[in-house]
Amino acid sequence: THTHTTHRTQTMDDPLTVEFLAEIRRTGAIKGSHLLSTRTVVLLRDLITQRRWMTASDIMRLVRETGRAADSSQPTEAVVGNMVRRVLRLVREAYAQCLNQDKQAQFSTTTSLHEMLMAGEGDSSDYSVVCKDLKKTIVQSINDLMEELEESAHNIAQQALEHIHSNEVIMTIGRSRTVESFLMHAAKLRKFKVIIAEAAPTFQGQDLAMALGKLGIETTVITDSAVFAIMSRVNKVIIGTSAVMADGGLMTVNGCQALALAAKHHSVPVIVCAAMSKLCPRYICSYDQDMFNSLMSPGEVLDYASSDLVGKVQCVQPMFDYVPSDLITLFISNLGGHAPSYVYRLLSEYYHEDDYEL
Question: Max Cα separation, the chain?
């Protein structure tokens, strides 16, 4: 217990970790999920290369402690925990790879395959064996992960022409960088119209409309309340998300649930553009707002100058909406298109089940 406590204190006192935790505590200090996921992976790589450790078990404890601290600092930023789980998976795979290489070097050419398999049983789950070249293998795996993160938005945008066709009317809400690059890539070869719900009170939809308008894409901005009225003219709804949950549901910008419900009523397909870094092994419930949601200042909705209303009205401004998986038609990730029902399979490929809870 004393060793674990000392290790935790050292992790939390590390200047790299302290600076990172301070940044994510300030909402919006690190702009965008892509930058946040990259910063998380860089932090974990630096900790692994700069800190002293002996075994894979030590690394996993270090990474897990950092992940817990980050998760408690900003629980609404799912990509931080996702990247911690990805790195833990990479450590496990690197350990198994190094362990196998060390064991193969011990066996002579006359050793039977059965003897080699029997010798390997039971050791892979014990991460306390000192392995040669473990750090080198882990760092190489993390560098590969960073390459994947860098290319994820481009890989998603490359699929745009398969889903957006000429003269279609596309609806979206707010401003997702992934959706923005997706639409821009399609606009190089296709002519289509985009209707953008402004996502009040942040009005990020207006920023997206300006960016698309500069490229000559015909764009219309509507109020969030007009979504249902306009939906009958729409061919597809394309949205981004903050996190894809274990059941295929979304934790996404406020207003998306109303948009998805209107789309379902009019039988309009809902396509979600999300990199694999947003895949989260947790479940959330729409009625349990305290568990996953964050409240913003209601000052933009109800100005404090309206003093006659301030004492009489309770104004709540949530940051996120939960969109259940049955309202979603297709996920487009950097790996390709997936149905919501396929998310459970992706979870088992990307994360180890022991790391679902940090």
Answer: 89
- Extract the tokens encoding 94: 């690197």
Residue 353 CA, chain-centre distance (Å), reads: 18
**Which two tokens mark 275?**
């990199």
| Average pLDDT in the chain | 86
| Dihedral angle sign, alpha carbons of residues 120, 121, 126, 127 | positive
Q: Cα–Cα distance between 175 and 56 in angstroms, integer? A: 41
CA nearest 208: which of 229, 222, 189? 222
| Residue 304 or residue 230, greater confidence | 230
In 158-282, alpha helices (H): 160-163, 177-187, 204-214, 227-230, 256-265
The CA-CA-CA angle for residues 306, 310, 316, to 5°, reads 110
Question: E strands along 67-203, which residues?
Answer: 169-173, 193-197
pLDDT in tens, 189-239: 999 999 999 998 889 999 999 999 999 999 999 999 999 999 999 999 999
Q: How far apart are CA 183 and CA 304, in angstroms?
A: 39
Query: What is the rounded distance in angstroms from the CA atom of residue 102 to the CA atom of residue 219?
Result: 60
Tell me the CA distances in angstroms from 116 to 19, 113, 122, 130, one per residue in order: 47, 5, 12, 19
Residue 188: exposure state from Cβ atoms within 10 A (0-12, 13-18, ≥19):
exposed
Closest by alpha carbon to 56, among 126, 120, 127, 3?
Answer: 127
Cα–Cα distances in Å, from 197 out to 115, 157, 208, 210, 232? 64, 21, 10, 13, 15
In angstroms, the CA 184 to CA 178 distance is 10
Higher pLDDT: 46 or 290? It is 46
Query: Is the bond into 281 cis (omega within 30 degrees of 0)?
Result: no
